[in-house]
Amino acid sequence: MSEGAxxxxxxxxxxxxxxQFPAAKGRILTACEDVSLEIExxxxxxxxxxxxxxxxxxxxxxxxxEKPSSGHIFFQGWEITNLRxxxxxxxxxxxxxxxxxxxxxxxxxxxxGEIIEESIRNYAAVPKSERASRExxxxxxxxxxxxxxxxxxxxxxxGQRQRVGIARALAPDPEILLCDEATSALDVAAQKNVLDIxxxxxxxxxxxxxxxxxxxALVSSFADRVAVMYLGHVVEILDAEDVADHxxxxxxxxxxxxxxxxxxxxxxxxxxxxxxxxxxxxxxxGCPFCDRCSKACEDCRKKKPVxxxxxPGHFVACEEV
Length: 321
Fold this sequence. Notes:
Rossmann fold; about 325 residues; 12 strands; 10 helices; single chain
């Protein structure tokens, strides 16, 4: 971490981060554009949006899997944007990732105990003589019996595999867990189980969590803060408890209107977000949501809004609210 320290409130902070990928015929695909947000120590930041909005790409940059095209990322005030080699590898012990599909993340010929031990061994977290007891401790931490150490991934349910993924991520004692759609492939009961485990681990270990999902209701119930993304942009950041009643951005409100609830009035028409999101290969010059927004005016199509503090701690990128 040789870039020097900077004063930041968050334990992990992105400042004006953009990620672009080269595409066919010399075009550029912009996955994330000018994103600034932070994950606070011991708290959960939920990042929510439609598929393809750039939230997983953002998480991969925060973890160091992808390098930003521009912008800066800080861990505990130290810039980690351009770490390489051993410095970058050692940073991964502090920031661990939990992936959406553990079957893709696990070697199918490795038992659960070997999967967890590999993470322990990579970072020399404990002496060799203590690795077996550490494996058992980590399995217990995610509510799995010791016997699971001998199971292969195909011998577990989706929820059990995800818990092994959490155990593997915990092995080097990280300060931050980044969860990329970690519950989206699970049934409701397994989702609750995984979220309960993450909440308990956060309380016990003061772990900070970045949690990506397309489910606004789930994120609002689990996170402390919520960042809403649309077409590579953060369009709103607010406290999770304020999402339902105080969201301001038209896209956030449209997402709220689309949530199904057992108590909703099914005799009323269900609002939908009209139209399709523009291609990230052909970004509009103004607000990225203007073509689907009922409040859009001519200025919205010309000028791209920036995040502004509409209320204390509540940021929104819309000039019409």
